[in-house]
Each structure stands twice: as C-alpha cells, then as structure tokens.
Write a structure and sequence with these properties.
Keywords: Membrane, Transmembrane, Transmembrane helix. It is a single chain. With about 200 residues, this protein is mostly helical. It has one domain: Up-down Bundle (Hypothetical Protein Ta1238, Chain: A), CATH 1.20.1200. Helix content is about 60%, strand content about 0%. It is built from 8 helices and no strands.
C-alpha cells in the first residue's frame, strides 16, 4: 500500500487536492512549513514535541475535516498554556524585546519559530483562496499558528527572562537639514498612502 503519511504521496493519491501548476500559494505554504520544521528548535519538552507533531501533520486538515476536529483539542490545550505563560510574562516584560541583540542560540531558534508561525499564518490566507475546501474547521490552521506564535513569545519571556534585552528608546541628537526635513514633512502631510498604492 502507498504510504499515506507523506504529504506528496497523499497529494498523488488525492489528485483533486493539489495540482502543482495551479496551486502555487498552497505549495508555497507547504514548502515554508517544511522549512520551519527543518529549523525547529531542539527543545526536549512535551509542548514542543506536540507543536512539532502538529506542524508535521497540518496538511491532513486540508484533506479531511475529522483531522481538524482532532487538532482543535491540541490547539485549545496550547492556547490555555499560552495564556498562563502570558499572565506570568506580563509581570516580567517591560518593553519590546530586541531579539537582534540576543546571543543565545536557543532564543534565536525560538524567535525564528515564532516569526515563521506568523509568516505561515499569512501564507495560509493566500493558500486558502486556491484550495478546494470550504469547511470552517480548516480555520483551526490559522488559529494554531497564531497560538503557536503567542506561546513561543511568552515561553521566551518567562524561561529566558535573564537574557532578554529591550529595544532602545532614546538616541543622541543628530544634526540634520531642517529645510529638507520641513519640505518632506509638508509633503507627507498633504498626501495619503492611497495616493501611492
């Protein structure tokens, strides 16, 4: 029997699900998902094992509503964990975290996972226009990706509180061309973004 666990094999079996030449945004979503999995943090904790399991099997939700119902149980579990972390984290976090100045490799990997989850959520909405599935349960995918991002952010804030650095809010005064500054400012006040879109 053909292996049903593998995404590409699954697509061959269910030809109506994916046609590579027509579903570019869906495949982009899946390829970015694969990239996210290949860069997944090496944290040996049950919650991260669950997250990796869900990411590895997201494609099943596109195929069968039952898988979405099963996944939703795990998403609700993670959402509750994220809320607890957020409650604790809000007591710790003072400002926006400056991830670019943090040296710790684990924090970098976690932050990358958080960012990738946000990108995947956006890619999902582009892919959703192309797939031939209209069931509402498919919305468990963006819900999971949103919860994942939130969970990871607050996990970092709580578990790495001593390594967190915050975005700098002040900078020394600089000399600038005041005439040019006023010219630009006047221009920006007269136009709207719609004028350029």
């Amino acid at each position: 029997m053909v292996e049903r666990d593998h995404f590409y094999t699954f697509c061959i079996i269910n030809k109506d699900l994916v046609k590579k030449s027509e579903v570019s945004n869906f495949l982009l979503f899946m390829e970015f998902l694969e990239k996210t999995l290949s860069e997944f943090p090496r944290i040996q904790e049950e919650d991260f094992e669950l997250i990796k399991y869900l990411l590895s099997n997201l494609y099943l939700i596109f195929a069968n509503q039952k898988f979405g119902e099963d996944f939703l149980k795990y998403v609700v579990y993670l959402e509750e964990k994220a809320k607890k972390l957020e409650e604790e984290g809000k007591k710790i976090v003072k400002d926006f975290i400056d991830f670019s100045s943090i040296e710790d490799q684990t924090i970098k990997e976690l932050n990358n996972l958080r960012i990738n989850a946000r990108i995947l959520e956006n890619l999902f909405w582009n892919a959703a226009r192309e797939i031939n599935r209209k069931e509402g349960i498919i919305l468990v995918i963006p819900q999971f990706l949103n919860v994942l991002s939130k969970f990871v952010f607050w996990y970092i804030a709580v578990n790495f509180k001593d390594k967190i650095k915050y975005i700098r809010r002040d900078f020394k005064e600089v000399k600038f061309n005041e005439e040019l500054y006023k010219k630009y400012l006047e221009t920006y006040k007269k136009v709207t973004l719609d004028d350029y879109l």
